[in-house]
Design brief:
The complex is a heterodimer. By secondary structure, chain A is mostly beta strands. Helices cover about 0% and strands about 50% of the residues of chain A. The N and C termini of chain A lie far apart (about 35 Å). Chain B has no helices and eleven strands. Chain B has strands spanning about 5, 10-15, 20-25, 35-40, 45-50, 55-60, 60-65, 70-75, 85-90, 105, 110-114. Chain B is globular, with a radius of gyration of 14 Å. Classes of the chains: A mainly beta, B mainly beta. Chains A and B meet through strand 4, strand 5, strand 9 and strand 10 of A and strand 5 and strand 10 of B.
Amino acid sequence: NAGVTQTPKFQVLKTGQSMTLQCAQDMNHEYMSWYRQDPGMGLRLIHYSVGAGITDQGEVPNGYNVSRSTTEDFPLRLLSAAPSQTSVYFCASSLQGNYGYTFGSGTRLTVV
Amino acid sequence: QQQVKQSPQSLIVQKGGIPIINCAYENTAFDYFPWYQQFPGKGPALLIAIRPDVSEKKEGRFTISFNKSAKQFSLHIMDSQPGDSATYFCAATGGGGSNYKLTFGKGTLLTVNP
């Protein structure tokens, strides 16, 4: 049972490049979310999904896209990377929305 | 608009002390209040959670106190140990169709000295 798996763990991008952060869970959780963590800012919700084919925006969605074609996978796409997107990104999943979320180990992204 | 306010930002205690971290919320529709513990380089991990129908919940050395009328809740760590040194986040969710969006406080960096 791997839980929530995020890849890659580290990534450096140049401004304007695009990339996809991968997230997979093997717990058959319906709810999945992407957060970014910045110093002194806590964790802020980027996008979330309540099931395959259903996604919606969170608090800071600009510059990011998501899709949910399967229950297991919830990739986060950076369309055109900007230095302001330098952050640590966490994917999380939950069986039910108002129960505990399980977090992945994060992707540390640097945009130069 | 910060819906969950957490204090203090940092906290240093001696081993055996009882650190207390406080959170206040604004949205009265919130109905689930978890606390997460995060070690450096790791993702947050669920520590303990409470719902507003109880005023206190204990799990081992960790206790949540909840004051619904004041819209406040706090985490107490009894007999704190150096291994408890981590960042702690309070969070809240709930409110009809929004029960899947966690709103986090900004975190408290706890240091427990030996």
